[in-house]
Every structure is written in C-alpha cells, then in structure tokens.
Design goal:
alpha/beta, 11% strand, globular, TIM Barrel, 8-stranded parallel barrel, 14 helices
Length: 389
Amino acid sequence: MKKSFYELWTSQVYPGLDLAVELLENANQAHVLAAIGRPPVSFGGFLALISEATGNMEERIQATARSLTEQRFGRTVNMYIPLYLSNACVNDCAYCWFGRSNLAPRKTLALEEVESEAAILREDGYRSILLVSGEGGGKGEVEYLESSIRLVKRLGFVQVGLEARALDVAEYRILANAGLDSVTIYQETYDPDIYARVHPTGPKRDYRGRMEAPQRAAMAGIRAVGMGVLLGLGDYWRDAVALAAHVKHMQKYHWQTSISISFPRIHAAPGGFAAPHPVSDQRFVRLIAAMRLAFPDSILTLSTREAPELRDRLFGMGINQVSAGSKTSPGAYTLEEKSEEQFPVVDGRTPAQVVEAIRGKGLEWVFKDWDVNLRPAPMASGAEDEDNT
C-alpha cells in the first residue's frame, strides 16, 4: 500500500523541518561545491543550494542549471496560455481576487464562449492550454469541466491542463477520459497554521484534502501533475524543503506521472493583504536553480506574474515552460465586459514579443512538446489499488 504524502508529512517531514532548516543555516561553500558537481543533488545538496552559503557561486550554480536544462530539454522553451472558465468561488482565500468577500463582477463562460476564446488562442498558434476555474461549487461542475475539455480537444489543442478545485479520484478519471492531460494544483503553503489563517472558509480549508490531490490525479491516470507553493505565504526555506519532499514522494510512488514545478509568487493581493514572508528576486532565482539541480527531468514553469526582465533572465536557466499573452479573467480574450482577475499580469507583452525575447537568449520557442500518441490510455473505473483519498 502506497502511503500518501500527508502520512509521510505528519510522521517524518513536518517533525524534521526544524532540523532541515538548522542544516540549511549551517551550510557552507564546500557543501555548495559538492552539490554543483553531483546533480541530481541529494537532500543535503538541495539545502545547500537554497541557503545563503551560495554567495559568490550563484553564477556557477545558474550556469549548471542552464546546462542541465539544455541537456534534458534542448534549447527550447514551451509556451502555453491560460483560459479562465469562471471566477465564481465559494472560498475566501486571503490572497486571491476570486475570494467570495471581494464584491466584484463574476462570470462563468457558456460553452459557446469557451469555444470562442479557445478558437482565438488556437489561431494565435497555441496548442497547449490551461483551463482555470474558481471553486464555484455548483451542481454539474465536473460535467461542465468535462465538456470544456472535450471542446478544446476538438479544436486541436494537444496539451490540455486544468487548474481548479481538488477533485476525488473518480472525478479526475472522468476528466482523464475526456482527454485531460495535466492537473495543476498548488498546496499554497505547507505551514498548517498559515494555511488555516489564509483559508478561513470554504472547501479549500481542507489541508489534507489539498495535499493529497496530486496523488489522486495520478491514481486517476492523469499524465502530468503540476505542483508548487505560493511564495510569500509561508517561510521560504520550510516551504521549499516541503515542496521538494512532496515532489520526490510523487516521483517515487507515481513514477508513471510526469511532475512539473511552478513558482507563483505574491506581488499584490486584495484588501491590503501583505505576504507574511516576502521572497526576494535573489531567493526566487536561487530556488529555481536548486529545483533544476534536484529534479533535472522536471518541467519548470513560470507565469506572467513576474516582470519581463526577470522572466527573460530565467528563460532556459531552469525554466523551460512559460505563459505569454495571458489574461486572468473569464472572457478576457474575446468579450468586452470586464470580470474579476485572479491576479494582475505583470508581464503584459504579446506572444510575439515574448518569442523575440526567447530568441534573444539563443533559444527556440515551441507551442507543443509531445505527441498525442504518447499519451497512455486512461485507467478503467475501479482500477486504482489505493484508498480513494
């Protein structure tokens, strides 16, 4: 029987975080040098690479991360686009503009509107799309997601991802059978106390349910799972260590599933909410490089939350998948009416401008990085041999 990460978290990882942070604080340049020379790095090597001991070796670390990225993925950067289906949400997350206390216009796209939005994006050349939805909690939500996935698949999108509420295994399997290729679900923070404070109401308050969602997606036969923390919510080092442990656990027990890592960071939030633990650009870049050395074969993703100058710097240096031309509210690509955004877009460049920046780094952009024939057949109902957590 495969343990869930929550079981490992409560019995080993969380009790061991204080020791991990102590080791991290005691790291020195010898530890950093040893890590650079031995990717994929050990747990101790990862701690050294996110520590302050990196000092004047950061350029060398970043060069190693760039070299690893090129070895594993070539000199390419994959491009995807988010399509927001709905900003209706029953949660009240302190950091999110979709929170129900934010009295702003709400919109759920009709399927005809989904088709119009997706058709525009396909004309722009995109073949990888991320469907995003707030946790509306209404009846027929899974059926709506299923219909939306089938629709964009018919339009010719090869890679279809979903970022929505945490589902159970049976629900994820329905979406896998509809053609869903990937699920993106962030823990936001692994600190249980902070998690409870920033999720005061709604189903997202279920800390364990959220933590076990990547496992449920993998059990349902979803080909790829995207993971991450919302940088700035929890302590930088503790969340980084917890995320790395969670990714490692998923790779060990669900090796058939490709695990990617994203790096969303809080820059602005509604109601004057301030990030409890702001993350500097230096630490942000350090974490991306460390994740590349720890997980050489994982896709590392960066959204338009970050500024153009920083994104350009990270293209190929660990990061090998980016969004471009993003809008973060439903209907934003085709409709004139305005609805609430999930977060402000910082890199507002057009896809063509981002392509030019990628080329300026000596890299090539691609809209599709895998063939549909490589997708495994979805698992039959009841095929999971684990508990349906």
